[in-house]
Amino acid sequence: MRILFTDYLDDVSKTYVNLDALATEKGSKSAELAYRGNPPFLYEGESRGNSAINDTYFFSGIKISTKLSAFRKK
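Request: output the structure for the sequence above.
Response:
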């Protein structure tokens, strides 16, 4: 498990922006990716996530192994 020193891994932090202003400033694709739900969200400036808690992530896996000689015919 890794603790990050940022809250931007999942792109959910701070507040929502005005999508029209974002599209004008940065392009329509930027506004499209800023909010992927069914517009409109409740209010511009509405809290988006909890910026007081940093993001974390972890990896896990399973390893299965066998000896190839176990399948050899005698």
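The helical segments are 19-26, 28-34.
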